[in-house]
Amino acid sequence: MNTNALFVGLALATFVATAPPAFSQQGPPPSEKAKQIEALVTKAAALIDDKGKAAFEDFRKRDSEWFRGDMYLFVYDMNANVLLNPAFPKREGTNVSGQKDANGKLFHNEIIKTAETKGSGWVDYMFPKPGQTEPSQKWTFVKKVTIDGASGLVASGFYPE
Predict the structure, then answer these.
(1) How far apart are CA 117 and CA 126, in angstroms?
(2) Could you give the C-alpha distances from 16 to 5, 9, 48, in angstroms and in order?
(3) CA distance 16 to 90
(4) How far apart are the C-alpha atoms of 66 and 118, rounded to whole Å?
(5) I need a labelling partner for 25 at 20 to 30 A (CA). Which of 18, 69, 119, 142 fits?
(6) For residues 66 and 126, what is the distance between their CA atoms, to the nearest angstrom?
(7) In 3D, which of 85, 66, 88, 67 has the Cα closest to residue 76?
(8) φ and ψ at 39, to 5 degrees?
(9) Which domains does the chain have, with CATH numbers?
(10) Which residues does residue 153 pair with via DSSP β-bridges, in sequence order?
(11) CA distance 80 to 98
């Protein structure tokens, strides 16, 4: 084996060994919960695209397919204004741009960026479960929608544990 081939082989092995996995930020580990969240957001997006803000009334109903336990939908416009958040209703009407999670991640900005650039996708961040103050890891699936003629997004997440 020549020296160049050995060097290239060692360099490639080092890169592969130290590179982060390609799937590290693409989404949560495969699970039934992740599939359910993705399906729920996709269904909600179709309803919002069809009915606009009129769909929000159903999304607020506790113990419904849209809002049960620590699973709920939330809706933003593309300027980070909270249009719907039944688990944290005091957030509605506020702007969440620039807010950071416990690790310093601008997670609302990431959610909006994912909707704008990819149309849909997963974002992870640290966020308290409803009724708690300590943050836990949360994976959120986001999908871009049209709300009464304006661009926005709908999302829901889960806490893997």
Answers:
(1) 22
(2) 16, 11, 43
(3) 47
(4) 24
(5) 69
(6) 22
(7) 85
(8) -65, -40
(9) 26-158 (3.30.450.20)
(10) 76, 144
(11) 9
